[in-house]
């Protein structure tokens, strides 16, 4: 039975890490539905959120293999713990003077906002969980979606479900190397 | 002190305790080779192919427990290491490979002899490095050795662009503690899991230990024996676990799996508790997973947490050092007896004895590979390092040579790399120059890497080569006989006159085709102390390795050697 699994990982911010991570998905032919990478509050550490469409066995396999990577610091499978997710989409939709107000009304329901308006189209920004974004996109479809882009899902555990528990430990070489470069 | 990247390489290798490097020079690694003569502490072995260098480093590592080092140039030099790296990876062997790379300014431009070797080797190394500045170099080398040898060992590749080798920097060898926040080489086993394991052990009536190479790597040989004896638990061995438990011990079941003993496989299938110690439930060990050990609860101890629940789901999975975990388990474990269970196993063992080739009256006069290996075992007193290639002869060595911790089997188990034997054996012999080394190879695999004979001669390496020649790719032929209706496509093999070939290399050689000739030939090889010696054993062409669990079949569904008669009956027994 396939399901959606949100897997988050803290990784060292170094060249080649992304390649190592996505190779874990490529090897058994798993599809990454969404992948986001960004810096954390510490420049040497990046955080990834991966969304996998697959079986529980697939998710466990990915977790096991990610943990083997030297530059992956921690891995968590969000399913089973309370967590929040957000995605962001920009949707460029056809808008005529007749349809514009109807579109804006729909945007209101989704707390979406217009970030660009042209003669025959507008660009809408929507932030929310994936179903919300897909919901709005569905409603806008009849008006004519010209193009759409999504930032990808980011996830964080609620309350004391903390991924970044290794704050005091950073890589010896990065630290030493940085010191030598500075001196 | 300001040094070039090339000099830093050797300085770092020396500080990591390296005195032997197997390699092959070329354009992009030339700056490093250029400074080699300034470091007489390092002996460089010129191989005849980079694959040979990787296998030699691997064989050296397996024989000594130290990190083996191979060096090659960029492009084809580096890609020729790939098979060797994959071999070391699947068998957890600590190897560091250093490759030259085109200058950083042209990486990605398809420069002459450029290959993206860190990309290529990403899934077949424990870790790899592309060093882009000379300042990083010492850190990367130190980290590479640390990663290769710590925790579950494995190969690490360092790719070194030519301009990084020539650039100069102030050299300090870092000595501070290596902290890699994402790498915990030895996880600590939680006490409550050890307690749960102990409870399962106490309540088991039909336990069996599955002992793998982890026993040897963690140095848990004595603890394993103590555990087995105190709890009267039989021990089955994996191919790479051979040597971790005395094979003449009454509790030893021999090897498990596809070509394992009948008693080992039946014991596993009938057991109510599996104790998997430092092994990874490879498909060659388990057969069909759906019917594997169906009545057993399972305890799995391995240093690599990713092995727990990977192939077989277990009741208690303990990630930790095996020796420490066994010590903890043994504390508070009182002696347990399993007399009835042992009696049942004895009946399976008796049946194996009855079917045993060496106990049968043979109608065919032709020499059997099993006889060769058995006699080699008795003539060496079991005190030789045996290094094999891959195929039928490999299984016969596993079945007919009893190994010990000091003389464990060296073989490509996980990858099954044909061509490993000769270079692997040269590496092992160079790592343990005082030991008797026998390289057992088939006529197929030997011809994949026999160019390394010249390396053995140039280095005057004392290796004895036992070539088992049956004129076929024997294991493939066996599968064709049993599962492909005897369509022997592409398996008959014409070979050169191996003794004449050896002579061309200046290697003394002798051909043996009768059992009575074996002893004299082996003694001649043993007496020949200057460099390699080759014995070609011309053996029965259509022999089959028994027992055999067909790939994907249930572990108890073994094809057994028939008792005193032609034809091969298939026997299914619960």
Salient structural properties:
heterodimer, A: 183 residues, alpha+beta, Alpha-Beta Plaits, 5-stranded antiparallel β-sheet, 4-stranded antiparallel β-sheet, 5 helices, B: 574 residues, alpha/beta, Rossmann fold, 6-stranded parallel β-sheet, 23 helices, 19 strands, disordered C terminus
Task: Put the structure in a nutshell.
The complex is a heterodimer of chains A (183) and B (574). By secondary structure, chain A is of the alpha+beta class. Chain A contains five helices and nine strands; from the N terminus they run E-H-E-E-H-E-E-H-E-E-H-E-E-H.
Report on this model:
- The complex is a heterodimer of chains A (183) and B (574).
- Chain A contains 5 helices and 9 strands.
- Chain A has 183 residues and is an alpha+beta fold.
- Chain A folds into 2 domains: 3-81, ACT domain (Alpha-Beta Plaits, 2-Layer Sandwich), CATH 3.30.70; 85-154, Alpha-Beta Plaits (2-Layer Sandwich).
- In chain A, the strands form 2 sheets. In chain A, strands 5, 6, 7, 8 and 9 form a 5-stranded antiparallel beta sheet that branches. In chain A, strands 2-3-1-4 form a 4-stranded antiparallel beta sheet.
- Chain A is elongated, with a radius of gyration of 20 Å.
- The relative contact order of chain A is 0.19.
- The mean pLDDT of chain A is 90.
- With 574 residues, chain B is of the alpha/beta class.
- Chain B folds into 3 domains: 2-170, Rossmann fold; 191-349, TPP-binding domain (Rossmann fold), CATH 3.40.50; 367-538, Rossmann fold (3-Layer(aba) Sandwich).
- Chain B is built from 23 helices and 19 strands.
- In chain B, strand 18 (509-512), helix 23 and strand 19 (533-538) form a beta-alpha-beta unit.
- Chain B is globular.
- Chain B starts with a strand and ends in a 36-residue tail after the last strand.
- The model of chain B is unreliable at 566-574 (pLDDT under 50).
């Amino acid at each position: 039975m396939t399901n959606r699994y949100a897997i988050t990982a803290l990784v060292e911010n170094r060249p080649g890490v992304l390649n190592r991570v996505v190779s874990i998905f490529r090897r058994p032919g798993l599809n990454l539905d969404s992948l986001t990478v960004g810096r954390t509050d510490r420049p040497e550490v990046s955080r990834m959120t991966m969304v996998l469409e697959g079986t529980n066995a697939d998710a466990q396999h990915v977790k096991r293999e990610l943990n083997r990577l030297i530059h992956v610091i921690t891995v968590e499978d969000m399913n089973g713990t309370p967590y929040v997710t957000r995605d962001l989409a920009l949707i460029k939709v056809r808008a005529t003077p007749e349809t514009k107000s109807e579109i804006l009304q729909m945007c209101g329901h989704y707390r979406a906002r217009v970030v660009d308006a042209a003669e025959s189209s507008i660009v809408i920004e929507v932030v929310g969980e994936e179903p919300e974004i897909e919901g709005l996109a569905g409603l806008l479809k009849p008006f004519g979606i010209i193009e759409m882009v999504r930032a990808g899902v980011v996830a964080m555990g609620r309350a004391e479900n903390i991924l970044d528990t290794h704050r005091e430990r950073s890589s010896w070489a990065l630290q030493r190397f940085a010191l030598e470069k500075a001196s | 002190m300001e040094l070039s990247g090339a000099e830093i390489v050797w300085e770092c290798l020396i500080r990591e305790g390296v005195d032997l490097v197997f390699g092959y020079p070329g354009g992009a690694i030339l700056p490093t080779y250029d400074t080699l003569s300034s470091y007489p502490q390092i002996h460089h072995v010129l191989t005849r192919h980079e694959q040979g260098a990787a296998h030699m480093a691997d064989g050296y590592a397996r024989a000594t427990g130290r990190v083996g080092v191979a060096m090659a140039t960029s492009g084809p030099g580096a890609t020729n290491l790939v098979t060797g790296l994959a071999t070391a990876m699947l068998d957890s062997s600590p190897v560091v490979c250093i490759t030259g790379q085109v200058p950083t300014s042209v990486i990605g431009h398809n420069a002459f002899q450029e290959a993206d070797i860190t990309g290529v080797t990403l899934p077949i190394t424990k870790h790899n490095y592309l060093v882009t500045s000379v300042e990083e170099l010492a850190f990367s080398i130190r980290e590479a050795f640390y990663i290769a040898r710590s925790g579950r060992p494995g190969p690490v590749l360092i790719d070194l662009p030519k301009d990084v080798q020539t650039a100069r920097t102030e050299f300090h060898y870092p000595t501070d503690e290596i902290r890699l926040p994402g790498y915990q080489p030895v996880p600590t086993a939680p006490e409550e899991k050890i307690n749960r394991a102990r409870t399962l052990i106490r309540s088991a009536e039909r336990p069996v230990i599955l002992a793998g190479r982890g026993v040897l790597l963690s140095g848990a040989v004595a603890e394993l024996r103590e555990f087995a004896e105190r709890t009267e638990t039989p021990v089955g061995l994996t191919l790479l676990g051979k040597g971790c438990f005395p094979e003449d011990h009454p509790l030893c079941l021999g090897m498990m799996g596809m070509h394992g003993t009948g008693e080992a496989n039946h014991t596993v299938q009938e057991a109510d508790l599996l104790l998997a110690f430092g092994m990874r439930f490879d498909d060659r060990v388990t057969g069909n997973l759906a019917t594997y050990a169906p009545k057993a609860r399972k305890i799995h101890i391995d240093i690599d947490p990713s092995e727990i629940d990977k192939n077989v789901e277990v009741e208690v999975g303990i990630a930790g050092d095996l020796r420490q975990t066994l010590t903890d388990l043994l504390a508070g474990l009182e002696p347990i007896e399993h007399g009835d269970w042992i009696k049942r196993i004895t009946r399976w063992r008796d049946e194996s004895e009855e079917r045993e080739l060496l106990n049968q009256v043979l109608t065919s006069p032709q020499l059997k590979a099993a006889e060769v290996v058995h006699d080699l075992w008795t003539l060496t007193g079991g005190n030789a390092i045996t290094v094999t290639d891959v195929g039928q002869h490999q299984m016969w060595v596993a079945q007919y040579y009893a190994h010990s911790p000091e003389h464990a089997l060296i073989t490509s188990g996980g990858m099954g790399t044909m061509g490993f034997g000769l270079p692997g054996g040269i590496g092992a012999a160079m790592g343990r120059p005082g030991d008797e080394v026998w390289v057992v190879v088939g006529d197929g695999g030997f011809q994949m890497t026999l160019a390394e004979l010249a390396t053995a001669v140039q280095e005057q390496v004392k290796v004895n080569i036992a070539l088992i020649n049956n004129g076929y790719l024997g294991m493939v032929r066996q599968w064709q006989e049993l599962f492909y209706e005897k369509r022997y496509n592409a398996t008959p093999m014409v070979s050169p006159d191996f003794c004449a070939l050896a002579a061309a290399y200046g290697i003394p050689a002798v051909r043996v085709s009768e059992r009575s000739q074996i002893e004299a030939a082996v003694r001649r090889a043993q007496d020949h102390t200057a460099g390699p010696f080759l014995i070609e054993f011309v053996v029965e062409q259509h022999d089959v390795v028994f027992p055999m669990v067909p790939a994907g079949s249930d572990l108890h569904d073994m094809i057994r050697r028939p008792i005193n008669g032609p034809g091969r009956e298939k026997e299914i027994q619960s």
